[in-house]
Amino acid sequence: MHRIYAIITFLATKDHMTLLNDMHTDWNVADSDVREAIATLHTGGDGYWSDVAKAVRITELRLVYVNDDEDFGELHVCFNTDDWRPDTSGLIYTDSVFEAELCEYLASIGLGTDVSYSEQGMQGDNYVSCDVEGEFLASYKAKFADKYAAALN
Predict the structure, then answer these.
(1) Angle 17-21-7 (CA atoms, 0-180°, nearest 5)?
(2) Residue 3 within any structural domain of the chain
(3) CB of 45 within 8 A of CB of 51?
(4) What is the pLDDT, as a whole number, of residue 86?
């Protein structure tokens, strides 16, 4: 029998208490992303991993994986780390406002909205990991053929 253990850390600041997992407590300057924003989304502070409500500048939508059937993939929603750092604010993962605004933004630029958070362990220090499905993938492929082809490899 195998057992999996997770180290859970609470980060308490004067304004809030945030539940952090062990993957995001050690900040590395190499994870900094201060590129220009392509959009600004917001968190509502209602996620399981953060109670912080604030504006978050999005720097890139990066499709990093597409399965062989081309009906499932992974999207990294990269964010400016001057706005959000998981080691101090927790994970954006499960925040309902961010997910709703992301879908609104995707629709506004002609992309599908069948996008949802991937699992907690796939979240990064400078991106939110999302599962994407057929509608999103077809629209992304039509709009960004070269980037889509790179995600297939």
Answers:
(1) 110
(2) no
(3) yes
(4) 94
